[in-house]
């Protein structure tokens, strides 16, 4: 759940990224005015980034007073020379279920990155002079995704159905992408808002689910290592998809470009179905509870035997 809340904070920043630039940089023909507005936006970004850097240097500590998870507690309990980051990565890459998840996560997130990057271009192609609304559509995708991530997190905490939830959200992302693809050119901007919101609810909502599922599949490895590999996969697929979809849009149009993403979401859905629900973290929690209950039972038995002996 902590990963999901952390992800929602990141998505809030992305949402502001969709909303603010179209307001600060209007669509004007004068190149000097355009350059002026862009420079203002960059100076504001630099100021915020500098302030955040200063806060990180002053406020952030090297590590929390207590381990944030059981995996981190196990790592910190070992001597530093026994832990190897490289060996941890190699163990993860030998984990077939995690490798499948890493690829499927990259496919889904890569589609999201490509869609987000080219969203303004696709919307303006069908709805000229709607730069501000294009930013608002991006905002809708992210905000609905934050709601989807929060709801998915609450569902996971209650049911522990990691694979089932991940698979359902993945398939719904595919369906949402298909609906968005065939409604983008209908000529009604409100329809785009609705379909983009539904797509964002599932596609953006899937992103933190991948981190939670990875933590289950890779326990007791560090969650930071598995999350890092997921992000590497997402960046690689995101770059490849953005370049490829951009070229497809140039030559064949927006529908062909979006169908390109749909094909990879379909592939990712099929691959997700083959991931085994090897919930190692949950199993460790169950074993720990059994150990605690067994120890309490032993103490109670010893107390009663000792009492009767007297």
From TrEMBL:
GO terms for cellular component: endoplasmic reticulum membrane; mitochondrial membrane; plasma membrane. It comes from the Eukaryota. Belongs to the major facilitator superfamily. Feline leukemia virus subgroup C receptor (TC 2.A.1.28.1) family. This is FLVCR choline and putative heme transporter 2. InterPro entries: FLVCR1-2_SLC49-like, MFS, MFS_dom, MFS_trans_sf. Keywords: Cell membrane, Endoplasmic reticulum, Membrane, Mitochondrion, Transmembrane, Transmembrane helix, Transport. Residues 1-280 form the Major facilitator superfamily (MFS) profile domain. The chain crosses the membrane at residues 34-60, 98-116, 136-155, 167-183, 189-209, 229-249, 255-275. Its main location: membrane. The lineage of its organism: Eukaryota, Metazoa, Chordata, Craniata, Vertebrata. Coiled coil: none annotated. PANTHER family: HEME TRANSPORTER FLVCR2 (PTHR10924:SF3), MAJOR FACILITATOR SUPERFAMILY PROTEIN-RELATED (PTHR10924). It catalyses: ethanolamine(in) = ethanolamine(out); heme b(in) = heme b(out); choline(out) = choline(in). It comes from Gallus gallus (Chicken).
């Amino acid at each position: 759940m902590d990963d999901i809340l952390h992800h929602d904070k990141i998505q809030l920043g992305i949402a502001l990224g969709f909303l603010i630039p179209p307001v600060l940089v209007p669509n004007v023909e004068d190149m000097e005015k355009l350059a002026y507005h862009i420079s203002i936006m960059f100076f504001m970004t630099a100021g915020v980034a500098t302030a955040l850097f200063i806060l990180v240097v002053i406020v952030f500590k090297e590590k929390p007073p207590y381990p944030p998870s059981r995996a981190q507690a196990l790592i910190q309990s070992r001597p530093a020379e026994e832990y190897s980051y490289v060996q941890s990565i190699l163990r993860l890459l030998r984990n077939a279920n995690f490798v499948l998840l890493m690829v499927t996560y990259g496919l889904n997130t890569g589609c999201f990155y490509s869609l987000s990057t080219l969203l303004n271009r696709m919307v303006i192609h069908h709805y000229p002079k709607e730069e501000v609304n294009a930013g608002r559509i991006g905002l809708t995708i992210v905000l609905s995704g934050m709601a989807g991530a929060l709801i998915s997190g609450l569902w996971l905490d209650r049911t522990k159905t990691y694979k089932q939830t991940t698979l359902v959200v993945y398939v719904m992302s595919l369906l949402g992408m298909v609906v968005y693809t065939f409604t983008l050119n209908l000529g009604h901007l409100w329809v785009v808002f609705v379909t983009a919101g539904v797509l964002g609810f599932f596609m953006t909502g899937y992103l933190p689910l991948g981190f939670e599922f990875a933590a289950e599949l890779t326990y007791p490895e560090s969650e930071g290592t598995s999350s890092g590999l997921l992000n590497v996969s997402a960046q690689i697929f995101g770059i490849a998809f953005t370049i490829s979809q951009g070229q497809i849009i140039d030559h064949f149009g927006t529908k062909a470009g979006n169908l390109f993403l749909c094909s990879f979401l379909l592939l990712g859905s099929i691959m997700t179905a083959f991931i085994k629900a090897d919930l190692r973290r949950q199993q460790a929690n169950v074993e720990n509870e059994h150990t605690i209950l067994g120890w309490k039972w032993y103490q109670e038995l010893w107390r009663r035997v000792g009492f009767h002996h007297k």
